[in-house]
């Protein structure tokens, strides 16, 4: 099985975390210029790269979004509900890959990219029948 690696792609200090508003927040990593989306809701966070899975376009705030959860791709107008990480236009198409959100003891936050995201899908084993008495 392939080993999973992790890489911190964005770090925010406590002050930057406090400044995040409820709903969609766009943040750029000053060292490499890559952008990320952080969704805040009642003190919990979800995050992803600011890159559409369809053809790699960047997301912008969707002006048609009334509930503050949707972003729109600049290439083909695909829409992503960041609170669920599911694409809503077109419906049932993709699920956006999430970044792990680590809250630090000092109130800061790190966004961590896991690679591969689901290592068990890379080299899956053949299912084996469970033998009687094997599981208790």
From TrEMBL:
SUPFAM superfamilies: ISP domain (SSF50022). Residues 12-110 form the Rieske domain. PROSITE patterns: RIESKE. The keyword Iron-sulfur applies. Keywords: 2Fe-2S, Iron, Iron-sulfur, Metal-binding. It comes from the Eukaryota. PANTHER family: CYTIDINE MONOPHOSPHATE-N-ACETYLNEURAMINIC ACID HYDROXYLASE, INACTIVE CYTIDINE MONOPHOSPHATE-N-ACETYLNEURAMINIC ACID HYDROXYLASE. This is Rieske domain-containing protein.
């Amino acid at each position: 099985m392939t080993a999973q690696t992790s890489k911190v792609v964005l770090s925010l200090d406590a002050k930057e975390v406090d400044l995040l508003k409820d709903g969609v927040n766009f943040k750029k990593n000053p060292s490499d210029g890559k952008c990320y989306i952080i969704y805040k809701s009642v003190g919990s966070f979800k995050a992803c790269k600011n890159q559409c899975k369809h053809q790699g376009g960047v997301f912008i705030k969707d002006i048609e979004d009334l509930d503050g959860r949707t972003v729109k791709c600049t290439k083909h107008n695909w829409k992503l509900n960041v609170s669920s990480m599911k694409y809503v236009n077109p419906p049932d198409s993709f699920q956006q890959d999430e970044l792990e959100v680590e809250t630090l003891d000092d109130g800061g936050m790190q966004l961590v990219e896991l690679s591969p995201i689901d290592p068990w899908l890379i080299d899956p084993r053949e299912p084996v029948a469970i033998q009687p008495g094997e599981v208790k």
